[in-house]
Design a protein that fits this description.
Distance between the termini: 6 Å
Shape: globular
CATH class: Mainly Beta
Largest sheet: 7 strands, antiparallel
Order of helices and strands: HEEEEHEHHEEEHE
CATH architecture: Roll
Number of strands: 9
Helix content: 10-25%
Bound molecules: flavin mononucleotide
CATH superfamily: Electron Transport, Fmn-binding Protein, Chain A
Oligomer: single chain
Length: 167
């Protein structure tokens, strides 16, 4: 990324389905003094309250959730295929145990004190609007059995995209 060059999301063509499901993304949380990153492949982009928004689904057990609940700002970053192993690592280890930026060979950069990897080809800076815990009473039994056998429930975070940059 090197220099964060803001641009309008409406100026590019982007398929949110392949972006999340195939490329995967990094959710980077915290600030210059304490930060973390984790891989996601479930999420979305859309419009709500006249704002451009992103949504992500984070399970209770993730260290990332502690950051998302205690602060409002985070980033969603997409990286080229050559960083697949880095994304695998960030989706397998917890920031509770390791500095994932360092272990994955990613360079932490900050914009408005929000962390993101310098290696990203697209960065969305996000400001949390609402956090919706997807509790058991909201989930159909079939989905409960399939995705939540261990009761590690998701919280949906809906966030305004406040700035974006692409390489
Ligand atoms: C491809 C891939 C996609 C993932 N998607 C999600 C997701 O959407 N939500 C989630 O809670 N965990 C997801 N995970 C698991 C987290 O990335 C993983 O548990 C990570 O170690 C959590 O890190 P943390 O404890 O530092 O927050 C995914 C993992 C991989 C490899």
């Amino acid at each position: 990324m090197h220099t964060f060059q803001p641009f309008k999301l409406t100026d590019i063509d982007l398929n949110p389905f392949t972006k999340f499901n195939n490329e995967w993304a990094l959710i980077s949380t915290g600030n210059k003094s304490k930060y973390n990153t984790m891989t996601v492949s479930w999420g979305g982009l859309g419009v709500f309250w006249h704002k451009q928004v992103a949504m992500i689904f984070i399970r209770e057990s993730r260290y990332t959730k502690e950051f998302l609940d205690s602060g409002d700002l985070f980033s969603i970053s997409f990286l080229d295929e050559e960083y697949r192993d880095a994304l695998k690592l960030c989706g397998a280890k917890s920031g509770r145990d390791v500095d994932k930026f360092a272990e994955a060979g990613l360079t932490p950069c900050f914009r408005h004190n929000i962390p993101y990897p310098d290696e990203a080809n697209l960065v969305l800076l996000c400001n949390k609007l609402i956090a919706v815990p997807l509790t058991e009473d909201l989930i159909p039994k079939k989905a409960m059995d399939k995705f939540y056998a261990d009761k590690d429930m998701h919280t949906m975070y809906l966030a305004e995209i406040i700035e974006s940059a692409a390489r």
